[in-house]
Amino acid sequence: MGVMAVSPEKRMREARIRGSGPVTDTIRGWACGFKRAEDLQTLRYKPGDLVRHQSKPEWGVGRVTGQTGDGKVLIKFTGRSGDVLLAAAGADAHLVADADAVWTAPSRASSKKAAPVRRTPCVHCAAELREVVTTADGQWRSCPECSSKHRRQHVFLPFPREFDVPEAAAAPVADDPQAGWCRSCRAGERAAGFRTCKEINN
Question: Which CATH class is domain 45-105?
Fold first, then answer.
C-alpha cells in the first residue's frame, strides 16, 4: 500500500490545530522545507527562542518566529516594527540567546499613525481658522475656538479687552492648549460683540 503525499499547507493547518510541541515543530519544519525531523534539532535557533541583537540593543528582546531549511531566521523584536530576516551567518554573528528575557508582543495601537489634524481655511481670507490673526491696527484679534465653531470665517473680538493676554503680547503661548482663546471661550461661554473676517476686512 502506497503512502499518501501530504502538502505543506495541510501540515501547517494541522500544526495550528495541535498547538505547540514536538509534533507541531516537526510539521512546521517540514512545511518550511525540512526533509527530516532530525534537521530541526540541528538548528541553533528554533521558533519561540528569545534572543537579542548585539549591534541593535534598542530593538529590545526578539522572538524567533520561524526558520527556513537553509538556516535563515525570522525574528520579531519588541522595539522594532516588522520582522527581521537574518541569514545563518548573520544570525550566528549578531544574535545572542536570552532565555531570562520577557517578550511582549508590540502593541498594534502604537504602530498606527496619528490621524492628521484637519485644517479648515477661512472662506474670506483663506487662512486656517485655528490660526490667530490680528488686524493691522491691533484693535481686533481672532479667537481660534470661536472661529472653529463658526466653521466658515475667522471670528474677531476687541483686543486686548476680550483676551487674557496683555496688549504687548504679539503671539499666544505655544504650550497652552487654549492658546489665543478669548475670555468667553476659556470660561465656556458664548462670545458676544464679535465680527467676522468679512466684516473686519470690508
Answer: mainly beta
